[in-house]
Amino acid sequence: MGNTKRILVTGAVGQIGSELTLALRDRYGSENVVAAGHRSQPSPVLRDSGPFTWIDVTDRSQLKAAVVDYKINTIYHMSAILSAVGEKKPQLAWEVNIDGLTNVLEVARELNTDQVFLPSSIAVFGPETPRDCAPQNTVLRPTTMYGVTKVAGELLCKYYVERFGMDIRGLRYPGIISSETLPGGGTTDYAVAIFYAAVAGKPYVCFVREDTVLPMMYMPDCIKATIDLMEADRSRLSRHADFNIAALSFSASALAAEIGKLVPGFTCTYEPDFRQRIADSWPKAVDDSAARKQWDWQPDYDLPSMTRDMIDRLSERARRGDLPDAT
After folding, report:
1. Which one of 165, 213, 228, 301 has the minimum C-beta count within 10 Å?
2. Does residue 2 register a pLDDT over 70?
């Protein structure tokens, strides 16, 4: 479909999609990256920096019309119902995460698009997965509807690659920490909300235990990993939509302590809720050697540098009066 990338980002108003869209516009030209939302209003910068449209991914006709109208050849399918929301609304999670993905794959197949990106998640793992360092190839028996949809999504993508020869790629995202967009109902959301509370001068009540260790990643590394994978030489890739990806692993108390070094007087207490059970079903870290070998993945941020950058960015937002309540 030509050498110029014409990109559609579904879920472009979400936590990852909003920042990914802006990064793609910087890289490929604003006019070549179409942001698609569903219900949430886009930020002014997202709305005004390039084309924007509304799409319900469970409606295949809407999706197909957008791909045709905007001459799309690459789809980043970021629309999803996340883990905590998915447990409250499991049927909705299935409809959005599976029916929506099926629609994307079928439209991409019918219209012969060049590439599709699908985010997977550490939610594919379950209690039977090795907890200390989840292997690339391991048992996938999740205990959440979100995890079930992500396992099914990985398998669907593998099927479409092998059956139809499509170029579909994806990462098993860990928890994502961002200074720009509030999280959307995931089990790792505490690692974002805690920063907002600290910068606002408030104590934070954490919904997981202090010794809960989970894989995490700072948003700049998330964007970098996503684009790097999509630009990797396909001949080097022996996997498709299920790459383990790692950057950080820390306990809730370790994060609180790191924040306390930069925000004197900050306090964090712990009142685990239903999300603790989800967190306990996930590994503490993952083995991402396949990503490092096949497309040279390497994160830029560790816990201290991520924490400092988050505090700096949110403090600047607070000075501008642009710091929402994330707690």
Report:
1. 165
2. no
Tell me the per-residue pLDDT of 128-150, one tens digit each, with 9 for 90 and over: 999 999 999 999 999 999 999 99
pTM higher than 0.90: yes
Contact 132, 284 (CB under 8 A): yes
> How do strand 74-77 and strand 7-10 relate by DSSP bridges?
parallel
Catalytic residue among 146, 190, 196, 270: 146
pLDDT per residue over 165-198, tens digit each? 999 999 999 999 999 877 777 889 999 999 999 9
Active-site residue, 146 included: yes
Place of tokens 């997965």: 129
What's the half-sphere exposure (Cβ side, CA atoms, 13 Å) at 325?
A: 4
- In the chain the domains, ranked by start, together with CATH numbers, are 7-174+218-244 (3.40.50.720), 175-217+247-283+300-319 (3.90.25)
Q: pLDDT tens-digit profile of 71-88?
A: 999 999 999 998 888 999
